What we know:
Distance between the termini: 30 Å
Radius of gyration: 21 Å
Low-confidence stretches: none
Shape: globular
CATH class of the largest domain: Alpha Beta
Number of strands: 18
Bound molecules: flavin-adenine dinucleotide
Number of domains: 2
CATH topology of the largest domain: D-Amino Acid Oxidase, Chain A, domain 2
Amino acid sequence: xxxxVIGGGxxxxxxxxxxxxxxxxxxxxxxxxxxxxxxxYGHGGTVLPTPLDVWFGPTFMASRQNARNGxxxxxxxxxxxxxxxxxxxxxxxxxxxxxxxxxxRPLIEASRDALADVEMRFGLEFEQASGLLYLVRTxxxxxxxxxxxxxxxxxxxxxxxxxxxxxxxxxxxxRPEPAFAGGVLFDQERxxxxxxxxxxxxxxxxxQGGVQFMLGCEVSAIRLEGQRASVELAPRPGAAxxxxxxxxxxxxxxxxxxxxxxxLLERVGLRLPLHPLRLHTLVAPVAHEECAPHVAIVxxxxxxxxxxxxxxxxxAGGAVLQGAGQIDKPLGEAVTTEALAxxxxxxxxxxxxAARISAALPWEGVKLLSxxxxxxxxxxxxxxxxxxxxHGPAGWGLACGAGKLVADLISGQPPALPDDTLxxxxxxxxx
Length: 431
Ligand SMILES: Cc1cc2nc3c(=O)[nH]c(=O)nc-3n(C[C@H](O)[C@H](O)[C@H](O)COP(=O)(O)OP(=O)(O)OC[C@H]3O[C@@H](n4cnc5c(N)ncnc54)[C@H](O)[C@@H]3O)c2cc1C
């Protein structure tokens, strides 16, 4: 089949790879001049999510204080945003959290397998590093993480619970003082460079053939007609005006346009209740080599990740919750400063002396979060339309499994995921 993928982020590139592997001809349409320029560019490094990473559950936004929960609520967010927070809060209840994580888990494992398969075939190097150490500040927060620790035991996820002294002994850059509650070490989980991986996959596909990348092209609309799906392309800036709209036709269409997916889908009548969340990164040079961590450090409650990539530290988090209508407007200096301060403070608290924050490069991007914490992957609205978006904090790790699922569905192959997971990912679950 001929398949159009809208979006050249990690979701679109991984989907294109899996479609090509399944024998389809693929065209990726991306509005930027190259791939991996959206949320993918700002990733925090963590590859696959554990129950401590997902953006739902007892610890997520458990406190109303920005400085404590790591999420800044911008004043004036509207009724829809409040409703979104309310829905997500329902998953703080341990049983609801366990049920939802149980639905996500098969996709995590499928993604692990799909990524391993790509690595085995092409031997790609994308700054993979093993080891993630999650740190928890207070006894109260440690109690709140118990539901996640129960899930680690239930699913036999390899991990070690460490006292503060053991954390410091394992990772020399972490100090046992001032006192904190403890840590969870995942020595087999990994961090890696997501945009680099996306670019390497593009290069591989360029060499193999069968996937065309239309870069610098923006899709202005989707058309769904009979057995065909098409996209209309916006005129390129500076191009001579023409009355004719550029249209490309295909047998199937995958919307993997990150935050841009919402507007495209809404115009064909599919309104997804996903909420855009702005996130920040600081990329800081290592200040003192002897203070720099050799595993990634994650502030488990504030969801701030600090991963080392060569001679720099990538610090990601500082989410800002605001009304969806405000997302295209500048955030405002005060809120940006507050978000970046959260990142700087977490780095100083956990690994003092490791990063030169004053020389760090800031970045901000938007990721889509769903009110039930799970992405939207599957067929939607029309037999030829497929969606792959809303991966929230886990788009890097889930990309290969999500792409495989979309490729299986388009190819008419039964996906290797349980029915309740497939139902929990589908767009029509919100109806
Ligand atoms: C700061 C930060 C830290 C993160 N940390 C992690 C992490 O540690 N681990 C993890 O797994 N995930 C992490 N994530 C989430 C992860 O980065 C995202 O889930 C993932 O990158 C989403 O990929 P995507 O391809 O769906 O979206 P994007 O990367 O945003 O790609 C969408 C693409 O579609 C294009 N597009 C949009 N509309 C159109 C249109 N109309 N026409 C043509 N092209 C269009 C855009 O230009 C863009 O390139 C983080 C995200 C952020 C922002």
